[in-house]
Amino acid sequence: MLPAVALLSGLALPAAATDHAFVVDIAKADAARVEALKHGAGVHWWLELGDRLVVAGAREPLARLVDEHDRLGEVADVTPEQLALRARGCKEHGEAPGRLLARGGRWELRRLAAGEFLPKSDEDEPHAQWRAVQPNQVIARQYRLDHAVAAAPDPLVQPLVDATDADRWFADVTTLAGWDRSSYGTTSLTQARDWIGDRFAALGLTVTKPAFTFSGSGGTVTRSNVIGTWTGTTLPNEWIVVGGHYDSRNTNLSGTTNAPGAEDNATGCAGVVELARILVANRPQRSVLFMCYAGEEQGLYGSKAHVAQLQQAGDLAKIRSVVIMDMIGYSADTTLNADYETYPAFAAYMNTFAAAAATYVPALQVTTSTNAWGSDHVPYLDAAKPTVLAIESDYDVYPHYHRSTDLPANIGPNARAMGAAILKTNVAVLANEAGASDRIFADLR
Fold it and tell me: So what's the pLDDT on residue 2?
């Protein structure tokens, strides 16, 4: 969880020369066209947000540069100082200041009017985040723009990809959604925790349920993560973490009932179980910690606790890499889109997932971003561990997000295809990362 941009809170917007801006659809543009739009005649500055590009400058040359059918919006008299980036999904039940101009890479671009200010950090919304805008910045990037040709599938990896079972995964989503899994609850959350542990144990994993505490409205709350550990056959002291949170919520953050959380995040937790089934069957040479966290919705408490426990035990150095799944099942239409994000230092690791999608799941359109925020990947990133988050791109328009109606039936008809696409992408990377691809006589990376 990253801090809000405190410098802009409560400050008046400075006067500056204004520009005209177009919001441009670049979903089907190639890399040359995107560069031409960024550096065309009349362009003073730009912002790239996945499949959206904002170009600003003198109106008349911009109007000649931007095809009319690609224009999604037009804004007069704008400056970068008037703009702010808001994390998509935070404060989903409240009004946000400013006017929405574009979405991309888990961020909204909003224009603040005179007299509007960025809100201060809100303890009741731990994922809320705002950032200032710097002109000529890539907030998120379509991976395909820079990688037009995909690599050929690896015959030692393809069987693991093919082993992904969308129906089996969705059955687990349905089971988990049968419990209220608020981290403020007790009985139902414990039943879900124990069910996850039983699934891990059935695969031959060593199961632990380390406890942690956080503050609730009624005092200190004690909850547990669930870890199923595979000990690597040849490199047991090199660890991979595969995680997702198993807690849920509805519109009331502290409520303990009516929180089925099918999309958020039974999909990701069931994804951890499905990846464990596939990888363990191939006896990884590195150790793998398959884990599901509690306390994510209240402030990433489970993942923070795990990082702290690793540090206290002297095991943090053993962590080679981490992949987190949070909301992987919903797609608003049959076009499958996913966001993969990390910090700048680990962009190369993130790109291995985008490359795997291009090779093994070409129907999945991946947007990458190094502006990570707001899920269980952040504590590992802050501990300087190579970590990525995988999340479907339509979660912020999912009508049942953080509601009592987040049920398996409401994730929609594209759920199995969406979930399978992300799981296949992740297992393709993990096959090599964990040494689970039957590459017995090959050198490990």
Answer: 28
Compute the distance between CA of residue 132 and CA of residue 300 in angstroms, rounded to an integer.
24
pLDDT digits (tens, 9 = 90+) for 316-340: 999 999 999 999 999 999 999 999 9
- Residues 293, 360, single domain; the answer is yes
Place of tokens 């059955």: 171
What pLDDT digit, counting tens, does each position of 238-278 carry? 999 999 999 999 998 888 899 999 999 999 999 999 999 99
Are 406 and 400 spatial neighbours (Cβ–Cβ below 8 Å)? yes
Domain count, the chain: 2
Nearest to 299 by CA among 208, 379, 395: 379
398 and 367 both lie in a single domain: yes
For residue 193, tell me if it sits in a domain: yes
336-341 and 364-369: which strand pairing?
Answer: parallel
Under-50 pLDDT residues of the chain? 1-15, 93, 122-127, 440-445
Output DSSP code: residue 265.
I
Torsion of CA 300, 414, 406, 262, to 10 degrees: -50
Identify the domain containing residue 278 by its residue range.
158-433
Residue 439 lies in a domain: no
- 412, part of any domain: yes
The gap from C-alpha 46 to its chain's centroid, in whole angstroms, comes to 25
